[in-house]
Amino acid sequence: MDAIKKSLPEMYAFTVCMWLKSSASPGIGTPFSYGVPGQANEIVLIEWGNNPIELLVNDKVAQLPLSVSDGRWHHICITWTTRDGFWEAYQDGERLGTGDNLAPWHPIKPGGVIILGQEQDVVGGRFDATQAFVGELSQFNMWDRVLRPVDIMGLA
């Protein structure tokens, strides 16, 4: 397991995209998490138990209409903006859901730690094996803006 020790800037929006493959059941675990001092769940993507995939921003939760545990490769992208806490969820280039009021007006704090494959209970540590991602992950990318649907389609 590798921690990316790259300091992120303060962000008012983000897009995160990745290819993933999992046949884990129930729940694929945590493809990635970003923790900052004082908030281990600044950004988390997690699916545990029989719950839908969830996006956490500042410990607030949105359930995403994604389904990726069929053992095939899927491209997923999640966008979020502090303006109204608006989010979008894409799977294989198609926007499957949107929502708002997810940590609205909360800027993403800088200086944290991105971890692929684990949820952090403290920044950079205290991992729970039951929340580990089970599967394969490739081409993880993060932007400090909301990508346009045409750009997301081009990545998938």
Would you kindly provide a brief summary of this structure?
With 156 residues, the chain is mainly β. Helix content is 4%, strand content 49%.
Could you characterize what this model shows?
- By secondary structure, this protein is mainly beta.
- It has a single domain (3-155), classed as Jelly Rolls (Sandwich).
- Helix content is 4%, strand content 49%.
- It is built from one helix and 13 strands.
- The longest helix is centred in the C-terminal third of the chain and has 7 residues, at 149-155.
- 37% of the residues are buried.
Please give the order of strands in the largest beta sheet.
Answer: 1-10-3-4-5-6
The DSSP helix count reads 1
The CATH architecture designation is Sandwich
Overall mean pLDDT: 89
Q: Provide the CATH topology.
A: Jelly Rolls
> How would you sum up the global shape?
globular
CATH top level class name:
Mainly Beta
- Residue fraction in strands: over 45%
Cofactor: Ca(2+)
InterPro entries: ConA-like_dom_sf (IPR013320), Neuronal_Pentraxin_Related (IPR051360), Pentaxin_CS (IPR030476), PTX_dom (IPR001759)
Keywords: Calcium, Disulfide bond, Glycoprotein, Metal-binding
GO molecular function, one term: metal ion binding
Provide tags for this entry.
mainly beta, Jelly Rolls, about 5% helix, about 50% strand, calcium, Pentraxin family member
